[in-house]
């Protein structure tokens, strides 16, 4: 790929903005900085741009989710559509190859954006020398330095483990290794029932793998509305996934090709789970290792995060900013992207803002799960009076036609003003449907406002309208 050549002379390259990290937050920050007329550089320690999301996260996992969904539908649902399939089998190697091809395509797209916007790309590990000078060390051990008036830390995150578990990346693996397995396992134990755990667990369950999910909490996708977790649990069980909730994992050992996971159930009794692989999905930690924060008077907390001003995302060191997974808030690519734009515009003297309440969360299982705004529990904790409207996809004509009738839309609105406070969806194309809710909430629409908008028929989007009508004096028309 095109990147800046290594120069061993005494000339130091000067920039208006240096971005450390090329994930969604970093590369978008670089693009927006360049659009605003700043001379911009971006530093990436790996050979390809795009960070975790594009290389070993969002994009490859969605590619495998789609491939496994195609197979699952062919094996289980094509007959009802009058499509007869014989000799159906899985070419797991081709599935992984397609995933890799998708990743290659999108990372080349980021490379093109850097070239288009005249952003200088440096491949190597970036670390602070001073607050305005960054050292870049490549894989040959060669070092060069560049200087910038402003530096944006966008180094992302890496998977966490449990104190009692050692990741060997062979049998006890993280999401990174789960996307590049050389073989299709017969059994897999997934530690953690959060979004990453249920997404990757569902990939392998659809392909016929016996998947057991061991979760510490008493529900899955615990960061989302509790009703979404209940419904997803019910749906994933139908695909064969087994769930063991309220279980505390105490260890994992490998013997030959078998991993044994030990845990305690809700009563404290010892239990064991065995699998060909153990996939550890217990969260992520900000990646600020060897960044040289101490050299500029910054320090990271135990999760690797740094403190920033909530409005400007500037650290306590003037001219040094941080975005995405290395600061507080949900570890989501789209959050990092918006923050990258915000910082570039702050540097340019503009007055951008982000409403963190309106950052959506999505689980790309099938059915998909999406959420924006406040949950029922959060509204109750805040003492906010609210009313609820729900609409089942079983009553949707479009869902009936496609055979995707699992799930519902739930709308939470202020009891006195009818303003929409939260929308929670599990169902077909929920990840796309949530965008209408976000737009409505951005303009502080009431549930009745959306209920009076003419939605195309038959579409999945009608279910959002119906849920809004249900929240408005129980006026749903098709339920």
Structure commentary:
The chain has 13 helices and 22 strands. A hairpin with a 5-residue loop joins β13 (258-264) and β14. It is globular and about 70 Å long. It starts with 12 loop residues before the first strand and ends in an 8-residue tail after the last helix. It folds into three domains: 13-64 and 93-159 and 285-356, FAD/NAD(P)-binding domain (3-Layer(bba) Sandwich), CATH 3.50.50.60; 172-282, FAD/NAD(P)-binding domain (3-Layer(bba) Sandwich), CATH 3.50.50.60; 367-471, Enolase-like, domain 1, CATH 3.30.390.30. α1 (24-35) runs parallel beside α8 (333-347), α3 packs antiparallel against α4 (92-116) and α3 packs parallel to α6. It has helices at 24-35, 51-56, 58-76, 92-116, 175-178, 195-206, 226-238, 333-347, 376-382, 397-402, 430-442, 447-451, 462-471; strands spanning 13-20, 40-44, 120-123, 125-128, 133-137, 143-153, 157-159, 172-173, 187-191, 210-214, 242-244, 248-255, 258-264, 270-275, 277-280, 284-286, 320-322, 361-363, 368-373, 386-392, 408-414, 420-427. 46% of the residues are buried. Strands 1, 2, 3, 4, 5, 6 and 17 form a seven-stranded mixed β-sheet that branches. The chain has 479 residues and is an alpha/beta fold.
How is the secondary structure organized here?
Layout: E1 13-20, H1 24-35, E2 40-44, H2 51-56, H3 58-76, H4 92-116, E3 120-123, E4 125-128, E5 133-137, E6 143-153, E7 157-159, E8 172-173, H5 175-178, E9 187-191, H6 195-206, E10 210-214, H7 226-238, E11 242-244, E12 248-255, E13 258-264, E14 270-275, E15 277-280, E16 284-286, E17 320-322, H8 333-347, E18 361-363, E19 368-373, H9 376-382, E20 386-392, H10 397-402, E21 408-414, E22 420-427, H11 430-442, H12 447-451, H13 462-471
Helix pairs in contact: 1-8, 3-4, 3-6
